[in-house]
UniProtKB/TrEMBL annotation:
Gene that this polypeptide is encoded by: S-RNase
Organism placement in taxonomy: Eukaryota, Viridiplantae, Streptophyta, Embryophyta, Tracheophyta
UniProt GO MF annotations: ribonuclease T2 activity; RNA binding
Name the record gives this protein: S7-RNase
Alphabetic keyword roster: Disulfide bond, Endonuclease, Glycoprotein, Hydrolase, Lyase, Nuclease, Signal
Pfam families, alphabetized: Ribonuclease_T2
Biological processes per GO annotation: RNA catabolic process
Source organism (scientific name): Prunus avium (Cherry)
Length: 224
């Protein structure tokens, strides 16, 4: 009986360790590559206006997030090496300043640090810090959302609105995969804020985003 009890205790302990390990290393199913529309960030920041009063007029990177199908906001803040400035070579820093600026406070390095520590640490088994930023930049170069929307005559406007599918369709046509749209509410207006593209576990193969939540569909969407 004593033997059975200690084996059971051992099994429970081993399982607990296994769970802790999974949580700290951050197992994930796929990646969300999130691009944001800076004017929307700044429009909804009432108390603390953006440091640049003239926000950039192109989609910039918000982050590359390893995600779970059951809970796309997880994993996050995994145990692992924290952001190191020296691991970002100067040529990469200058590319990121264009593609991944801090559009709110203007502190680019702090923004990259926050994204790496919160999200990058959870995919370190596939992408080290350098690869994480390189891959994100390559995705941004390959999928120019600003241009795709422009080609479909979807340009910032204060007078017209679009449906969810008006915006998704040209992105799907250009990239071959379904994106996800995220919006911010500003009083009664639903503003387009982010376009999410999904990638497989290795961050190499572009896949459909299979969630429908994001902007409130079928409410109209403003892009300003
Ligand atoms: P997450 O932490 O999940 O990657 O993103 C959410 C946070 O990122 C929010 O607090 C949001 O305000 C912040 N965020 C989004 N874009 C920017 C940006 O350009 N600069 C800074 N500093 N924070 C940002």
């Amino acid at each position: 009986m004593a033997m059975l009890k200690s084996s059971l205790a051992f099994l429970v302990l081993a399982f607990a360790f296994f769970l802790c390990f999974i949580m700290s290393t951050g197992s994930y199913d796929y990646f969300q590559f999130v691009q944001q529309w800076p004017p929307t960030n700044c429009r909804v920041r009432i108390k603390q206006p953006c440091s640049n009063p003239r926000p950039l007029q192109y989609f910039t990177i918000h982050g590359l997030w390893p995600s779970n199908y059951s809970n796309p906001t997880m994993p996050s803040n995994c145990i692992g090496s924290q952001f190191e400035w020296r691991k970002l070579y100067p040529h990469m820093r200058s590319k990121l300043k264009i593609s991944w600026p801090d559009v709110e406070s203007g502190n680019d390095t702090k923004f990259w640090e926050g994204e790496w520590n919160k999200h990058g640490t959870c995919s370190v088994e596939k992408l080290n810090q350098m690869q994480y930023f390189e891959r994100s930049y390559a995705m941004w170069r390959s999928y120019n959302i600003t241009k795709i929307l422009q080609n479909a005559s979807i340009v910032p406007s204060t007078t017209r609105t679009w449906t969810y599918s008006d915006i998704v369709s040209p992105i799907k046509a250009a990239t071959g995969r379904t994106p996800l749209l995220r919006c911010k509410q500003d009083k009664k207006t639903q503003l387009l804020h982010e376009v999410v593209l999904c990638f497989d576990y290795n961050a190499l193969i572009h896949i459909d985003c299979n969630r429908t939540a994001g902007c409130r569909n079928p409410l109209s969407i403003s892009f300003e």
